[in-house]
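Before relying on records like the one below, remember that each one covers exactly one chain. Contacts with other chains, cofactors or solvent are not represented anywhere in the record.
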Amino acid sequence: MAGPSKDTWKKTRGGAAAVMKTMTARQMEAFNLFSGGLAGTVASTITNPLEVIKTQLQSSNVADGGLFGTRSPVGLAKKIMEKDGFAGFFRGLPPTLVGIIPSRSAYFYSYQRCKVAMGRYAEEGSVPNALVSGLVAGIVGNTLTNPIWMVRTRMQIMADQSAGQVVYAGYRDAISTIFREEGIGGFYKGITASYWGCTEGAMQFILYEQFKSRLIKQKNKQRAAEGLPPTDQLSKATYFVSAAAAKMAAAIVTYPHEVARTRLREQSRGGMFKYSGMWQTLGLIAKEEGRQGLYAGMGVHLMKVVPNSALMFLTYEVVRGWLGEFTIVE
């Protein structure tokens, strides 16, 4: 990726030379893509142990109590450590590292482009703009990367061999086995639940943009009283807290789709797939396990996604502010 172009010089009123930072539109787009992906990579690597525990809690292997004999996050962590050691907490990390950059990059890139395009019909920061932009961003990201997350989930869920589930020898074995036994469609299991999960992203963006808009208005009101010019920037701490609050609210409201997606991606038990669609899955979980089943693993999930998302949004805002210092050139 080419870096920012060389600084050019221009004359100020006093005749002194000042630096004007320039960057081409293509360079700016590439930097936006890379920064969004890098933020997601760092955050996801740090929180991968929580992802592994959460996925176990969501699975039917743990729900029926037969595989580990516990539904406690701490109890599961102990079992994972006993079975696989420290490396067990990083199951599924390679697909994450492969998929997170294209996933997050596509997500933020699509969001930014859609937000600007929608600006002709709905003001940036408004609920309609954030809703449409968030939905589009989520659909694009999920469509491109669902096969990666499918493989990750299969590798993270501890196989119940007593139910005929296979212990994959590695990622290549997992991919070839899924393709051989389930076809191309096997890699897109859970995508309907992922699309439904786009409402979480849209809700998060709506809340985030609303929080940000109100805080900027409040800040500019104070600045006006002090005789200072208006600004469109907030402190890094404010961006972080706003993103965290938005993610927490959105994740709690839409969480059951996360459980449904994991169940849909599980291996068959006794040669039969129990779950066949998102609504059928949610209905079956509600009937057999009740509310506890629908919200299994939510506490661990929030511990993972809230700081993860807040870090990504903070990075996005910092990079966006930095790029705002550049003048776009041809």
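The chain has one domain: 31-329.
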